[in-house]
Amino acid sequence: MSAKDAARYYGLTFDRKGWAVCPFHQDKHPSMSFRGGRFRCWACNASGDSIDFTARLLGLDAMGAAERLNADFCLALPLHRKPTKAETQAARRRLEVARAHKEFEEWRKAFISKLCAAYRVAHIALRDMEDLDKLTEREDAAIRWQACFEYWADTLEHGTPEEQAQIYRERGAIAKWIEKVLSD
User: Fold this and answer.
1) pLDDT-flagged residues of the chain (< 50)
2) Would you state the CATH architecture of domain 3-72?
């Protein structure tokens, strides 16, 4: 669980950029950012992970904060005993899933950017078009695929996990169409 998850659970609210008013000093404007599962206040320099955040917010030591997070988030972590083989395997699997999710999110953001760039090529070509015979092969391809680029970008941004997974499976073919439009 991230520091942002803990902050949200313990009552912090976030602005449009995902920043919060720091609870560790007299803050009037959001000065606490969250990234990579960690937090940092750019005014008072408080920083750390979810355990650090919880410990500081609730006045606990690190173990007390871990116990509190374990209870509040129903994590069922074996804090005071050696984990069983099944628990160790489950934790390893959670890490694998989290890593795969992070990689997918990085791919998704980059792919949306490429789709939007290809969409813009079509938009500009249509806006500036005076004669269909003067379109370049690149502009022609962009115009033909413009609706698809828009659909894929929208689906990757707002679609269901199943819809996004389908685009991910077809990413090789889609990337070829994008490259045809974006290459000079």
Assistant:
1) none
2) Alpha-Beta Complex (3.90)
